[in-house]
Amino acid sequence: MSALSDEQLYLFDTTGFLVIPGVFGSEEVTAFRTELEGMDTIDPGFAETRRYRDLPSVSPLFAELALDERLLGPVRDVVNQPLRLLEGYALRRSRGSVLYMHGGNSELLDLGGRSVGRDLSITHTYHDGKLFCPYVKTLVYLSDIQSPDDGSFCYVQGSHKANFPLLRPRAERGVTTSLVDDGFPTLTDVFVRAGDVLVLNEALMHGTRRKLTDGDRLLAAFGYGPTYLTEWRELDGETGDLRGAGYVDHDVEEDFVR
Amino acid sequence: MSALSDEQLYLFDTTGFLVIPGVFGSEEVTAFRTELEGMDTIDPGFAETRRYRDLPSVSPLFAELALDERLLGPVRDVVNQPLRLLEGYALRRSRGSVLYMHGGNSELLDLGGRSVGRDLSITHTYHDGKLFCPYVKTLVYLSDIQSPDDGSFCYVQGSHKANFPLLRPRAERGVTTSLVDDGFPTLTDVFVRAGDVLVLNEALMHGTRRKLTDGDRLLAAFGYGPTYLTEWRELDGETGDLRGAGYVDHDVEEDFVR
Amino acid sequence: MSALSDEQLYLFDTTGFLVIPGVFGSEEVTAFRTELEGMDTIDPGFAETRRYRDLPSVSPLFAELALDERLLGPVRDVVNQPLRLLEGYALRRSRGSVLYMHGGNSELLDLGGRSVGRDLSITHTYHDGKLFCPYVKTLVYLSDIQSPDDGSFCYVQGSHKANFPLLRPRAERGVTTSLVDDGFPTLTDVFVRAGDVLVLNEALMHGTRRKLTDGDRLLAAFGYGPTYLTEWRELDGETGDLRGAGYVDHDVEEDFVR
Amino acid sequence: MSALSDEQLYLFDTTGFLVIPGVFGSEEVTAFRTELEGMDTIDPGFAETRRYRDLPSVSPLFAELALDERLLGPVRDVVNQPLRLLEGYALRRSRGSVLYMHGGNSELLDLGGRSVGRDLSITHTYHDGKLFCPYVKTLVYLSDIQSPDDGSFCYVQGSHKANFPLLRPRAERGVTTSLVDDGFPTLTDVFVRAGDVLVLNEALMHGTRRKLTDGDRLLAAFGYGPTYLTEWRELDGETGDLRGAGYVDHDVEEDFVR
């Protein structure tokens, strides 16, 4: 009944993510890549990066992928709530692109006049043998990433359960560069191949290295959460009549890196 | 900057609710009652109970009340996230009405093939001096409730932080009646007057006694939560394409009481 | 295998204590009272109170009682660690005696230059269906206590899981009297009869009312905890060579009441 | 007032340990080594390993080291309770020695008829900006360890906050070898030099690689905890009169490795 083994659950719990190798075969990977070739992209505002928006709405193939049990099975095991799809997109990145660090269990969020160390949209817990993660992403890799120079996924060990903030204190000490470039004692790289899936607890502080090699770095991503979460959209704070809905960012590196 | 005093925060934290007496004066209470007199109700399916739907949309007076700082101030102190309004309604109850017990931190929720003891829509936490409650209601009382026979609000002590379920094990022991009628060692009544506000952590197991007196029992209720919560609507499990959104009930007394 | 029923575990978890009525019959109660009549007492420094020290060492009857399964069974269910006996004593109290409030999950403890809101000797947790309480007492009542004037056990609801301190902020607001005399919105009394047992999580903020009736108030108390706890003895802070062992009090009412 | 910087606290919290490089200079290291040369050892039952017992009692130099602020400062920052010294010893290891994995936040402990996933002697928590770890060791390295073949300290990422057990499920799947030899996806090595100090939360699952190089691997270790902990000594379960005191092992690799 469980899609994940005991050891996979242990790894997801203790590290905040799990790589499942070879979930999709080369023909499926090729089909996903081909499907994306014909689709429009937008500029998400990150250097050398193109974004494919709302995959499940614009592509039957990706609508099917979003509900594929090879993704949903592991997700159900770590959300353990009635599930909904929050978002689906793809990213195509070229040489020079980067994704700065974000996430982190206790990074700060400013409210009017107060600052808090919890973002409930990523606050996860455990009870009676089950994990409860409100915001989980599956990353379906469509190209190999075998070195930091390929722009590898990287994470800060244990940050999904951190009790302290890291980014704002670091900025207050005068650091204005990214962990991605500076390194950090527990910043760790993850290497994958096309067809691998990375299941991610969004509470983990993660990003990618700066891509320094040629060729595309391509992946599709699907976000899932409990049914009472709204579809993912950024909200720039509260609306006056408290009718606006969306996710408000806590501290991320973009707030501090120059 | 904080609307609640240290002692009020202590009480809300340790008991799961807080009564703030005399928030609204008699003229305001009269205005709210008069406003309701002219509005339509629906049958919510509970005996001797009429429900006024979506108050903020149909009444400017209640739209204003939903954003009144006398309600929002305390709510902000216990949600500590960017806030949104999840719902607003009123209930008019007569002799014979009752509200069975619901809530409870660890009551069970059935998913396909598994049963879990967490409903993340009410799972609250604490960090660095602040409470984080995802689902908080304010009850604005518009009539006096001075005895159990008036249908008083009642709660099970400490149930908002319970580690065990109460209702399903009780039903499995063969009990098919309500705590409201049977009593329970830690079932406790709360008496209020018109104009009082009760701020409620929805994780608390609460209900009301069976109303045995004449006259109306009238209150307006407003639910608040973080911006990433969808507007409150009941959802009967997942939808097939994971596009449905809403709140799924964990065990409540209606599941077991005959 | 479990000594406590589901409902008893639920009550202990949610309220921080459990009364088990009629554990000891009247003959046993009489035997315990008779045994105490012949034993020496000391002055513990509380008005109208005599203390019997180290019962299990000086009395075979109480050595046996300390290990009676009617006490150990419930204790094992809420400690869930290899067990040891930390202390055993009796208290005989007369008119005018009182026990001020102590315990509380987040009351403050001063270390050199810092103040902390955790006393690990009472910090309890829950995991996979089991409670883990490091310091649990059983109170064996040897007289009836049927009103506050009898000096009833009283507690602050939910204080065993409080996230905030109560006593020092209260003192800092200028209050120098006891909750026992002042009352508190959630201060609740417990009435018992001779032969009843009260199982207590020492994290609960508790005390007794001021005894205003004639006659003795008599009970025997046994403290239990994991094997890695030292026998209970008060320690007035750290020793210079870090060789001293004992329990250091966090804030209690005696620190503030005049 | 804090001995550890923000970043050091973040690292200790998220990884369960902290290396502080160069705490002791080469002259001090030489003095510690020389002191040990003249002292007796015992056979602790591990291959190619000699143990120096109770350093603070038998050596004024090590008695002083146990109280050195360079050790106590960091320890105080992560225990945050009145402190006591639980143990002090040294280990001299030669080619062929190994230390199998032990620790882990949720490894199992058998009680009479039940099995529990908490050992309160290592159960740590966080509250209001402070860590509370009941059992912390400082390892003072007296030789360089620069590769796995030197028998490096190794740990399982995030195991100090694991919600699941690892070792018994692994044994039940039929694995009878050590993570130290088999590897594990998140088993990570730590390299140090003589004079470095490693501050360790004993909840971390840790051990060392098998030493395959010549020369001694030498370190002194001091354990600290709250004053209500007894001095460290192994206890083989409860004693019949509940008077025995000591630490009872939960699952460790020695239980399963053949």
Automatic annotation (TrEMBL), chains A, B, C, D:
Gene3D superfamilies linked to this entry: q2cbj1_9rhob like domain (2.60.120.620)
Keywords assigned: Dioxygenase, Oxidoreductase
Annotated source species: Streptomyces amakusaensis
Lineage: Bacteria, Bacillati, Actinomycetota, Actinomycetes, Kitasatosporales
MF (Gene Ontology): dioxygenase activity
Highest taxon of the lineage: Bacteria
InterPro entries: Phytyl_CoA_dOase-like
Listed name of the protein: Phytanoyl-CoA dioxygenase family protein
